[in-house]
Amino acid sequence: MTLHETIRKIGDKAQAASRKLATRSTAKKNAILNAMADALDAQRADIKRANDMDIAAAKASGMATAMVDRLTLTDARMDAMIQGVRDVAALPDPVGKKLWKRTRPNGLVIEKKRVPIGVIGIIYESRPNVTADAAVLCIKTSNAVILRGGKEAIHSNLAIVKALQEGGERAGMPKHAVQLIETTDREAVRLLVQMDDRLDVVIPRGGESLIRAVVEHSRVPVLKHYKGVCHVFVDAAADRDNALAIIENAKCQRPSVCNAMETLLVHRDTASAFLPQVAAFAARRGVTLHGCKETCAIVPGCVPATADSWTTEYLTLDLSVRVVKDVKAAIAHINAYGSHHSDAIVTADKRNAKRFLKEVDSAAVYVNASTRFTDGAEFGMGAEMGISTDKLHARGPVGLEELTSYKYVITGDGQVR
Known about the structure:
By secondary structure, this protein is of the alpha/beta class. It is built from 14 helices and 16 strands. The protein has helices at residues 3-21, 26-42, 44-60, 65-71, 75-90, 129-140, 154-170, 187-193, 208-217, 240-252, 268-285, 293-298, 327-337, 350-359; strands spanning 98-103, 109-116, 119-124, 144-148, 178-180, 201-205, 230-234, 261-267, 288-291, 303-304, 318-324, 342-346, 364-367, 387-388, 396-397, 404-411. The chain has a 7-stranded parallel β-sheet with strand order 10-9-11-8-7-12-13, sandwiched between helices. It has a 4-stranded parallel β-sheet with strand order 5-4-3-6, sandwiched between helices. Strands 1-2-16 form a 3-stranded antiparallel β-sheet, with no helix packed on it. Helix 6 (129-140) links the parallel strand 3 and strand 4 (144-148). Helix 2 (26-42) packs across helix 7 (154-170) and helix 6 packs parallel to helix 7 (154-170). It is globular and about 65 Å long. The model has no long low-confidence stretch (mean pLDDT 96).
């Protein structure tokens, strides 16, 4: 069988499974998820052995230490993965939820209800815990899922999917509701995302190059964000202590994630007083500042910013800093150079805050809070599939509701038009 035929057969099986899964009750789906968690726990030793194989191969290939760490399933990470499955089981089920109901003058009753999307493809790199996260979110929303992880985690992913399949099927999950593409051939990704007659949506999780490659080849709608160039704007009316705390958290709490701050904008009227405080914080935390001309004049130790600085997602302890005239200039900078992900204003001026919220074109906008809160769990949504900066269907954290569509259900008693 050719690779093309293999991928299409996986699609056929996923479609059939999705139709069966759509008939499962919330109670049945929760039982399936808890059985999956039990199986992950019972097969923990097998999963750890498989993970050891991936780690050994990664080290032998010279993979960076940070990437090896992302690949590693420690006991604590296994515990968190298993608990994450149980947490999803405990979340409200969006499928079947009535969005609205209205009765027309002719007596027709029209309801708008949430329904599964159908078949979802997940393409991701490195972290094997994504395998479980993605699978259980799809099962909770009655979607079949086709998983395609990176070659660096192939043994770990195979072991995790085996446990999920065995546990879930024992509890009534349709066979093939969770499938993993087992080949590491990159051609499989192209074939998968062009299967628009079997796949309903694809979600890539990984670096910008992976996501752009998926978008370039896909014939299927893609939920994605390319990168997170997030901003904090410190207004002239900002509380400086609050501003420093927010900046430190947004930049340093976890600099390698998409909702970390990459650019700091400072109002010109407060720059001479505030930027030396920023420089002191940067020196204390090991942050390298890349400043505009005005910033460098106030903080001589800055690295001069370039045109590329304003669009760079560092994912490290580097920070671009720019002095701007006012809130209007800050908004213009963010809309021109940002990634429409997460952006914040620190201010006591309610008018400026309101303007910022209204005019910044991003998935999440903040007043006096860190951008690090853009996360499904932090938003009270439970688990998430990732962050979307798209505007159609889903924007921001992609949780359970975002993994559904809707249909109109119309009930009559003989009405004709």
